[in-house]
Amino acid sequence: MMTLTTEKFGTNKITSCLLLIIALIAMPAYATDSFTLDLGDAAKSGELNLAVGKSKIINSPVHIKEIVIGKPEVVDVKLLNSRKLLVLGKAAGYTNVAFRDSNKNLIALLDVSVGYDVEAIKFKLHQMMPGEKDLQVRSSNEMVILSGNVSSALAMDTALVVARSFAPNGVTNLMRVDGNGQQVMLEVRIAEIERTSLKQLGVNGTLAGNIGRTNLSSALNGAVANAFGTLGVVYRGLNLTLSALETQGLAKVLAEPNLVALSGQEGSFLVGGEFPIDVAQSGAVAGAITVEYKEFGVGLKFTPTVLDSTKINLQLQAEVSSIAAAATLSNAPTLRTRRASTTVEVADGQSFAIAGLIQNDVNNNIDKVPGLGDVPVLGALFRSTDFQRNETELVIMITPRLVKPMAAGPVALPTDNFVPPSDVDQYLMGRLQGSPKDAPATTAPSGPATGTDPGGVDGAFGHQL
Question: What are the Low complexity biased-composition ranges (predicted)?
Answer without folding.
Answer: 438-452
